[in-house]
């Protein structure tokens, strides 16, 4: 069973192994009026600050919520301008009507939405927005690649059952899950497609950070990159769901 504290044990690897979010996503958040300097944002499941950092650079006044102590410590050092609350999204003490924006970057799938959505509704001002996005390695709509075939072979050797809940890139299912309870209504849904070139060590680091991959499997993926010439260009998809507080 994937463990949400997996990331905390890999705090040192996480920040350098995970690619940043695409510029097109940040541009869209700006176009949608979400990155207004001086507005107050809460970034949930902030990790080492991949998204928090950009929100701060955009001029927002940011509080980051992160339950992992090693990640929270790293975040405090990396983004000193952000306030950091070391807690889960379910338990973080958020003052009522104190934020204009809530964000969750590659994190919402860890939350108990039945608890978190009403809490965010309370923490946001009227007219507040919730923006949820995630980087998903391997765009299933892109043509199959030799590396993805090798990845599929590694995964096929597992006997663990697949994770419950919506799949990684099922954007419509997530949009529905975030609308349950009527606390939020989706106002913008978009998927950003992009590519990245990775060498064997990039792949080992990246796959080690995936919560359902073992270090041995990550080594097998790195070996596959070496077999395929030392570098692979792979597809990512980044679904974005923006919701308005009802
Ligand atoms: C894949 S990482 C994403 C981190 C960061 N937002 C980013 O974009 O790189 C998922 C994060 O969610 C955090 N997390 C797990 N369960 C959580 C919960 N219930 N509430 C808040 N954060 C949680 C993990 O500690 C981890 O930092």
Automatic annotation (TrEMBL):
BP GO annotations: methylation
Start and end residues of each Methyltransferase type domain: 42-131
Annotated InterPro entries: Diverse_substrate_MTase, Methyltransf_11, SAM-dependent_MTases_sf
Classification via CDD domains: AdoMet_MTases
This protein's UniProt keywords: Methyltransferase, Transferase
GO molecular function, one term: methyltransferase activity
Family annotation (Pfam families): Methyltransf_11
Coiled coil spans: none
Family (UniProt): Belongs to the methyltransferase superfamily.
Protein name (database record): Class I SAM-dependent methyltransferase
């Amino acid at each position: 069973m994937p463990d949400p504290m997996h990331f905390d044990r890999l705090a040192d690897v996480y920040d350098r192994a995970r690619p940043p979010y695409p510029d097109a996503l940040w541009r869209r958040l700006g176009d949608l009026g979400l990155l207004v300097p001086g507005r107050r944002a809460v970034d949930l499941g902030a990790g080492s600050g991949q998204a928090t950092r950009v929100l701060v650079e955009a001029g927002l006044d940011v509080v980051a919520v992160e339950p992992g102590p090693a990640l929270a410590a790293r975040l405090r050092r990396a983004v000193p301008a952000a306030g950091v609350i070391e807690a889960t999204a379910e338990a973080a003490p958020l003052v009522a009507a104190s934020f204009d924006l809530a964000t969750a970057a590659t994190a919402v799938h860890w939350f108990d939405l039945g608890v978190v959505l009403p809490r965010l509704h309370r923490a946001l001002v009227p007219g507040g927005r919730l923006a949820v996005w995630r980087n998903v390695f391997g765009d299933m709509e892109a043509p199959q690649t030799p590396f993805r075939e090798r990845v599929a072979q590694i995964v096929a050797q597992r006997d663990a059952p697949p994770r419950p809940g919506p799949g990684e890139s099922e954007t419509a299912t997530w949009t529905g899950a975030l609308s349950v309870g009527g606390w939020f209504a989706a106002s913008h849904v978009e998927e950003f497609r992009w590519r990245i070139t990775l060498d064997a060590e990039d792949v080992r680091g990246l796959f080690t950070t995936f919560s359902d991959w073992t270090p041995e499997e990550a080594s097998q993926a790195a070996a596959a990159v070496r077999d395929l010439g030392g570098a692979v260009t792979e597809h990512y998809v980044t679904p974005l769901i923006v919701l308005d507080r009802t």
